[in-house]
What we know:
alpha+beta; 2 domains; four-stranded mixed β-sheet; 19 strands; 24% strand
Amino acid sequence: MSRLFRPALLVTAVLALLGFGITPSNAATTITVATAIGQQDNSTASVTGYVVGQPTATSTVVRSNFPNDYALALADSASQTSTSSMLYVQIPDAFRASYGLQSNPSLLGKQITVTGTLTAYFSHPGLKNATAFTGGGGSSDPGDPGDYYAGAEGKTGAALKAALHAIISQQTKLTYDQVWDALKVTDQDPNNSNNVIEVYSGRSIPKSSQGGDADDWNREHVWAKSHGDFGTTTGPGTDIHHLRPEDVTVNSARGNLDFDNGGTAVAQCTGCTADSDSFAPRPAVRGDVARMIFYMAVRYEGDDGFPNLELDDQVNNGTAPYMGKLSVLKAWAAADPPDAFEKNRNEVIYSQFQHNRNPFIDHPEWISSIWP
Protein backbone atom coordinates (compact mmCIF):
# COMPACT_ATOMS: atom_id res chain seq x y z
CA MET A 1 0.00 0.00 0.00
CA SER A 2 2.73 2.48 0.97
CA ARG A 3 4.49 2.13 -2.39
CA LEU A 4 1.41 2.22 -4.60
CA PHE A 5 -1.07 4.66 -3.07
CA ARG A 6 -1.39 6.82 0.04
CA PRO A 7 -5.01 8.07 0.34
CA ALA A 8 -4.24 10.60 3.07
CA LEU A 9 -1.48 12.21 1.06
CA LEU A 10 -3.68 12.36 -2.02
CA VAL A 11 -6.50 14.03 -0.08
CA THR A 12 -4.06 16.53 1.36
CA ALA A 13 -2.69 17.37 -2.05
CA VAL A 14 -6.13 17.78 -3.59
CA LEU A 15 -7.33 20.02 -0.76
CA ALA A 16 -4.19 22.11 -1.05
CA LEU A 17 -4.76 22.56 -4.79
CA LEU A 18 -8.32 23.63 -4.07
CA GLY A 19 -7.12 26.24 -1.60
CA PHE A 20 -8.26 24.58 1.64
CA GLY A 21 -5.85 25.16 4.50
CA ILE A 22 -5.59 22.11 6.70
CA THR A 23 -2.15 22.43 8.22
CA PRO A 24 -1.56 23.35 11.85
CA SER A 25 -0.19 26.71 10.73
CA ASN A 26 -3.79 27.95 10.49
CA ALA A 27 -4.35 27.49 14.22
CA ALA A 28 -3.63 30.23 16.73
CA THR A 29 -0.40 29.78 18.71
CA THR A 30 0.39 31.29 22.10
CA ILE A 31 3.27 33.77 22.05
CA THR A 32 4.87 36.44 24.21
CA VAL A 33 4.39 40.17 23.79
CA ALA A 34 7.95 40.54 22.46
CA THR A 35 7.26 37.92 19.81
CA ALA A 36 3.97 39.59 18.89
CA ILE A 37 5.69 42.97 18.47
CA GLY A 38 8.13 41.43 16.02
CA GLN A 39 5.46 39.48 14.15
CA GLN A 40 3.15 42.15 12.77
CA ASP A 41 2.21 40.10 9.70
CA ASN A 42 -1.60 39.88 9.97
CA SER A 43 -1.34 36.33 11.32
CA THR A 44 -3.59 35.06 14.10
CA ALA A 45 -2.08 34.40 17.51
CA SER A 46 -2.90 34.20 21.18
CA VAL A 47 -0.72 36.64 23.12
CA THR A 48 -0.15 36.35 26.86
CA GLY A 49 1.01 39.41 28.77
CA TYR A 50 0.36 41.78 31.64
CA VAL A 51 -2.08 44.69 31.37
CA VAL A 52 0.05 47.83 31.77
CA GLY A 53 -2.36 50.60 30.76
CA GLN A 54 -4.46 52.07 27.98
CA PRO A 55 -2.88 53.46 24.80
CA THR A 56 -4.26 56.84 23.81
CA ALA A 57 -1.67 57.72 21.14
CA THR A 58 1.29 56.11 19.38
CA SER A 59 3.70 56.79 22.25
CA THR A 60 1.25 57.41 25.12
CA VAL A 61 -0.12 54.81 27.53
CA VAL A 62 -2.09 55.99 30.58
CA ARG A 63 -2.25 54.00 33.83
CA SER A 64 -5.17 55.82 35.49
CA ASN A 65 -8.21 57.95 34.60
CA PHE A 66 -8.90 55.64 31.67
CA PRO A 67 -10.94 57.55 29.06
CA ASN A 68 -12.96 54.58 27.73
CA ASP A 69 -13.02 50.80 27.28
CA TYR A 70 -11.63 50.70 23.74
CA ALA A 71 -8.02 49.54 24.17
CA LEU A 72 -5.37 48.17 26.52
CA ALA A 73 -1.60 47.68 26.41
CA LEU A 74 0.16 44.39 27.16
CA ALA A 75 3.78 43.80 28.17
CA ASP A 76 5.87 40.82 29.25
CA SER A 77 6.40 42.48 32.62
CA ALA A 78 3.77 44.08 34.82
CA SER A 79 6.23 46.88 35.63
CA GLN A 80 7.06 47.75 32.02
CA THR A 81 6.90 51.51 31.29
CA SER A 82 8.49 51.69 27.82
CA THR A 83 5.86 51.83 25.08
CA SER A 84 8.33 50.23 22.66
CA SER A 85 7.95 47.00 24.68
CA MET A 86 4.17 47.11 24.70
CA LEU A 87 1.55 45.60 22.42
CA TYR A 88 -1.51 47.78 21.83
CA VAL A 89 -4.73 45.72 21.88
CA GLN A 90 -7.98 46.91 20.33
CA ILE A 91 -10.99 45.76 22.40
CA PRO A 92 -14.08 44.91 20.30
CA ASP A 93 -17.53 45.90 21.57
CA ALA A 94 -18.38 42.42 22.86
CA PHE A 95 -15.45 42.41 25.30
CA ARG A 96 -15.41 46.00 26.54
CA ALA A 97 -17.67 45.40 29.51
CA SER A 98 -15.34 42.70 30.86
CA TYR A 99 -11.90 43.89 29.70
CA GLY A 100 -12.11 47.64 29.13
CA LEU A 101 -10.03 49.51 31.69
CA GLN A 102 -12.52 52.27 32.39
CA SER A 103 -15.02 49.61 33.53
CA ASN A 104 -12.38 47.28 35.00
CA PRO A 105 -9.44 49.35 36.34
CA SER A 106 -8.46 46.44 38.61
CA LEU A 107 -7.19 44.61 35.53
CA LEU A 108 -4.05 46.76 35.65
CA GLY A 109 -1.13 44.44 36.41
CA LYS A 110 -3.14 41.27 35.73
CA GLN A 111 -2.01 38.64 33.24
CA ILE A 112 -4.39 37.90 30.38
CA THR A 113 -4.37 36.14 27.02
CA VAL A 114 -5.87 37.71 23.91
CA THR A 115 -6.45 36.00 20.56
CA GLY A 116 -6.59 38.17 17.46
CA THR A 117 -4.79 39.52 14.39
CA LEU A 118 -1.23 40.82 14.73
CA THR A 119 -1.39 44.20 13.01
CA ALA A 120 -0.65 47.83 13.78
CA TYR A 121 -2.94 49.78 16.12
CA PHE A 122 -2.41 53.48 16.89
CA SER A 123 0.46 53.21 14.32
CA HIS A 124 2.17 50.93 16.84
CA PRO A 125 2.67 47.15 17.03
CA GLY A 126 -0.73 45.84 17.95
CA LEU A 127 -3.44 43.19 17.98
CA LYS A 128 -6.86 43.84 16.44
CA ASN A 129 -10.12 42.01 15.69
CA ALA A 130 -9.83 39.99 18.89
CA THR A 131 -11.99 36.87 19.14
CA ALA A 132 -11.19 35.87 22.73
CA PHE A 133 -9.96 37.33 26.02
CA THR A 134 -9.18 35.12 29.04
CA GLY A 135 -7.59 35.61 32.43
CA GLY A 136 -7.51 38.57 34.77
CA GLY A 137 -10.52 37.28 36.63
CA GLY A 138 -12.77 37.52 33.56
CA SER A 139 -13.73 35.31 30.67
CA SER A 140 -14.65 36.31 27.14
CA ASP A 141 -16.58 33.11 26.48
CA PRO A 142 -19.88 33.19 28.35
CA GLY A 143 -20.48 29.58 27.33
CA ASP A 144 -17.35 28.35 29.12
CA PRO A 145 -17.24 30.01 32.56
CA GLY A 146 -14.50 27.82 33.98
CA ASP A 147 -15.67 25.52 36.80
CA TYR A 148 -18.74 27.58 37.66
CA TYR A 149 -21.05 24.63 36.96
CA ALA A 150 -18.83 21.95 38.48
CA GLY A 151 -21.50 21.07 41.03
CA ALA A 152 -24.01 20.31 38.26
CA GLU A 153 -21.83 17.98 36.20
CA GLY A 154 -23.40 14.62 35.45
CA LYS A 155 -26.78 15.51 36.90
CA THR A 156 -30.19 15.50 35.22
CA GLY A 157 -33.78 16.28 36.09
CA ALA A 158 -34.58 17.31 39.65
CA ALA A 159 -30.99 16.74 40.79
CA LEU A 160 -29.74 19.13 38.10
CA LYS A 161 -32.31 21.74 39.07
CA ALA A 162 -31.28 21.51 42.74
CA ALA A 163 -27.58 21.78 41.89
CA LEU A 164 -28.12 24.81 39.66
CA HIS A 165 -30.25 26.46 42.33
CA ALA A 166 -27.41 26.10 44.82
CA ILE A 167 -24.92 27.56 42.33
CA ILE A 168 -26.87 30.57 41.08
CA SER A 169 -28.22 31.50 44.52
CA GLN A 170 -24.73 32.76 45.36
CA GLN A 171 -25.24 36.29 44.09
CA THR A 172 -24.86 39.96 44.93
CA LYS A 173 -28.32 41.47 45.31
CA LEU A 174 -29.18 44.92 43.95
CA THR A 175 -31.64 47.50 45.17
CA TYR A 176 -34.41 48.61 42.85
CA ASP A 177 -32.69 51.99 42.38
CA GLN A 178 -29.42 50.25 41.43
CA VAL A 179 -31.30 48.40 38.69
CA TRP A 180 -31.62 51.62 36.66
CA ASP A 181 -27.85 52.00 36.36
CA ALA A 182 -27.23 48.29 35.86
CA LEU A 183 -29.61 48.08 32.90
CA LYS A 184 -27.77 50.94 31.22
CA VAL A 185 -24.75 48.63 31.08
CA THR A 186 -26.30 45.20 30.57
CA ASP A 187 -28.65 46.34 27.80
CA GLN A 188 -26.48 48.96 26.13
CA ASP A 189 -26.96 49.27 22.39
CA PRO A 190 -23.80 47.75 20.80
CA ASN A 191 -24.00 50.38 18.06
CA ASN A 192 -24.69 53.40 20.29
CA SER A 193 -23.24 53.55 23.79
CA ASN A 194 -25.67 56.33 24.73
CA ASN A 195 -28.69 54.05 24.26
CA VAL A 196 -30.25 50.88 25.60
CA ILE A 197 -32.22 48.26 23.64
CA GLU A 198 -35.79 47.67 24.76
CA VAL A 199 -36.37 43.96 25.13
CA TYR A 200 -39.82 43.47 23.58
CA SER A 201 -39.90 46.30 21.02
CA GLY A 202 -36.21 46.17 20.07
CA ARG A 203 -36.15 49.95 19.95
CA SER A 204 -32.89 51.76 20.73
CA ILE A 205 -33.63 54.59 23.16
CA PRO A 206 -31.43 57.08 25.03
CA LYS A 207 -30.36 55.90 28.46
CA SER A 208 -31.43 59.30 29.76
CA SER A 209 -35.06 58.65 28.72
CA GLN A 210 -35.77 56.49 31.75
CA GLY A 211 -39.00 57.33 33.53
CA GLY A 212 -42.72 56.84 33.55
CA ASP A 213 -43.97 59.05 30.74
CA ALA A 214 -45.09 57.93 27.29
CA ASP A 215 -42.09 56.97 25.11
CA ASP A 216 -39.81 56.69 28.16
CA TRP A 217 -38.35 53.34 29.11
CA ASN A 218 -38.79 51.70 32.48
CA ARG A 219 -37.92 48.46 34.29
CA GLU A 220 -39.90 45.52 32.96
CA HIS A 221 -40.22 42.41 35.13
CA VAL A 222 -40.24 39.58 32.58
CA TRP A 223 -41.46 37.25 35.34
CA ALA A 224 -44.39 39.51 36.28
CA LYS A 225 -43.91 40.55 39.90
CA SER A 226 -47.56 39.86 40.72
CA HIS A 227 -46.94 36.17 39.92
CA GLY A 228 -45.78 35.46 43.45
CA ASP A 229 -46.43 38.97 44.77
CA PHE A 230 -42.73 39.74 45.33
CA GLY A 231 -42.96 43.39 44.28
CA THR A 232 -39.75 45.37 43.90
CA THR A 233 -38.05 44.41 47.14
CA THR A 234 -34.45 43.22 46.92
CA GLY A 235 -34.51 39.66 45.60
CA PRO A 236 -36.66 38.46 42.67
CA GLY A 237 -38.03 41.99 42.34
CA THR A 238 -34.56 43.36 41.59
CA ASP A 239 -32.89 40.40 39.86
CA ILE A 240 -31.55 41.82 36.59
CA HIS A 241 -31.45 38.40 34.95
CA HIS A 242 -35.15 39.04 34.27
CA LEU A 243 -35.39 42.85 34.50
CA ARG A 244 -35.09 44.58 31.14
CA PRO A 245 -35.63 48.06 29.66
CA GLU A 246 -38.96 48.46 27.91
CA ASP A 247 -41.14 51.24 26.55
CA VAL A 248 -43.66 52.42 29.12
CA THR A 249 -46.62 51.83 26.81
CA VAL A 250 -45.47 48.34 25.79
CA ASN A 251 -44.70 47.45 29.40
CA SER A 252 -48.25 48.41 30.28
CA ALA A 253 -49.66 46.36 27.39
CA ARG A 254 -47.81 43.29 28.62
CA GLY A 255 -48.92 43.91 32.22
CA ASN A 256 -48.78 40.60 34.11
CA LEU A 257 -49.86 38.39 31.22
CA ASP A 258 -48.45 34.91 30.83
CA PHE A 259 -46.61 34.03 27.62
CA ASP A 260 -48.28 32.26 24.69
CA ASN A 261 -48.69 32.46 20.93
CA GLY A 262 -51.57 34.29 19.30
CA GLY A 263 -53.42 37.53 19.83
CA THR A 264 -53.38 40.80 17.93
CA ALA A 265 -50.61 43.29 17.23
CA VAL A 266 -49.32 45.42 20.12
CA ALA A 267 -48.87 49.15 19.48
CA GLN A 268 -45.26 50.36 19.37
CA CYS A 269 -43.97 46.77 19.45
CA THR A 270 -43.48 45.37 15.95
CA GLY A 271 -43.84 41.59 15.97
CA CYS A 272 -45.48 41.48 19.41
CA THR A 273 -48.98 40.11 19.97
CA ALA A 274 -51.35 39.94 22.93
CA ASP A 275 -54.84 38.89 23.91
CA SER A 276 -56.79 38.89 27.16
CA ASP A 277 -54.62 36.29 28.88
CA SER A 278 -51.24 36.14 27.11
CA PHE A 279 -48.44 38.09 25.47
CA ALA A 280 -45.80 37.20 22.86
CA PRO A 281 -42.72 39.38 22.25
CA ARG A 282 -41.07 39.82 18.85
CA PRO A 283 -39.67 36.51 17.52
CA ALA A 284 -36.03 37.62 17.86
CA VAL A 285 -36.24 37.61 21.68
CA ARG A 286 -38.75 34.88 22.42
CA GLY A 287 -35.94 32.52 23.36
CA ASP A 288 -34.38 35.21 25.56
CA VAL A 289 -37.68 35.61 27.39
CA ALA A 290 -38.05 31.86 27.86
CA ARG A 291 -34.53 31.50 29.30
CA MET A 292 -35.19 34.34 31.75
CA ILE A 293 -38.33 32.57 32.94
CA PHE A 294 -36.46 29.25 33.31
CA TYR A 295 -33.76 31.04 35.33
CA MET A 296 -36.34 32.48 37.73
CA ALA A 297 -37.99 29.08 38.25
CA VAL A 298 -34.63 27.60 39.29
CA ARG A 299 -33.23 30.54 41.23
CA TYR A 300 -36.26 31.08 43.51
CA GLU A 301 -37.31 27.86 45.23
CA GLY A 302 -38.96 29.24 48.37
CA ASP A 303 -35.97 28.71 50.64
CA ASP A 304 -34.89 32.34 51.08
CA GLY A 305 -38.07 34.06 52.19
CA PHE A 306 -39.40 34.50 48.65
CA PRO A 307 -42.07 32.46 46.82
CA ASN A 308 -41.26 29.17 45.14
CA LEU A 309 -41.58 30.23 41.49
CA GLU A 310 -42.62 27.44 39.12
CA LEU A 311 -43.71 26.92 35.53
CA ASP A 312 -46.96 25.39 34.38
CA ASP A 313 -48.58 24.79 31.02
CA GLN A 314 -51.40 27.27 31.27
CA VAL A 315 -52.16 30.99 31.17
CA ASN A 316 -54.29 33.11 33.50
CA ASN A 317 -52.05 32.31 36.46
CA GLY A 318 -52.96 35.55 38.17
CA THR A 319 -51.16 36.12 41.49
CA ALA A 320 -50.10 32.48 41.96
CA PRO A 321 -46.31 32.00 41.88
CA TYR A 322 -46.59 30.34 38.48
CA MET A 323 -45.77 31.37 34.93
CA GLY A 324 -46.82 29.80 31.66
CA LYS A 325 -47.09 28.54 29.13
CA LEU A 326 -44.34 25.95 29.61
CA SER A 327 -44.72 24.12 26.29
CA VAL A 328 -44.64 27.39 24.37
CA LEU A 329 -41.63 28.71 26.29
CA LYS A 330 -39.72 25.50 25.53
CA ALA A 331 -40.55 25.87 21.84
CA TRP A 332 -39.45 29.53 21.88
CA ALA A 333 -36.14 28.62 23.49
CA ALA A 334 -35.47 25.96 20.86
CA ALA A 335 -36.40 28.21 17.94
CA ASP A 336 -34.39 31.21 19.19
CA PRO A 337 -31.03 30.05 20.65
CA PRO A 338 -28.79 32.45 22.61
CA ASP A 339 -27.20 35.16 20.47
CA ALA A 340 -24.18 37.41 21.07
CA PHE A 341 -26.21 40.13 22.82
CA GLU A 342 -27.79 37.68 25.25
CA LYS A 343 -24.48 35.94 25.98
CA ASN A 344 -22.72 39.25 26.57
CA ARG A 345 -25.51 40.38 28.89
CA ASN A 346 -25.11 37.19 30.93
CA GLU A 347 -21.37 37.80 31.18
CA VAL A 348 -21.77 41.43 32.24
CA ILE A 349 -24.25 40.50 34.98
CA TYR A 350 -21.83 37.84 36.18
CA SER A 351 -18.65 39.91 36.06
CA GLN A 352 -19.94 43.33 37.12
CA PHE A 353 -23.20 43.13 39.03
CA GLN A 354 -24.78 40.01 40.52
CA HIS A 355 -21.88 37.57 40.07
CA ASN A 356 -24.22 34.75 39.10
CA ARG A 357 -25.22 33.41 35.69
CA ASN A 358 -28.27 32.25 33.79
CA PRO A 359 -27.40 28.57 33.20
CA PHE A 360 -29.84 28.22 30.31
CA ILE A 361 -27.88 30.74 28.25
CA ASP A 362 -24.67 28.81 28.87
CA HIS A 363 -26.32 25.37 28.54
CA PRO A 364 -29.63 25.50 26.64
CA GLU A 365 -29.71 21.71 26.63
CA TRP A 366 -30.48 21.74 30.38
CA ILE A 367 -33.99 23.05 29.69
CA SER A 368 -35.25 19.72 28.35
CA SER A 369 -33.43 17.86 31.12
CA ILE A 370 -35.29 19.72 33.86
CA TRP A 371 -38.60 20.12 31.97
CA PRO A 372 -38.84 17.05 29.70
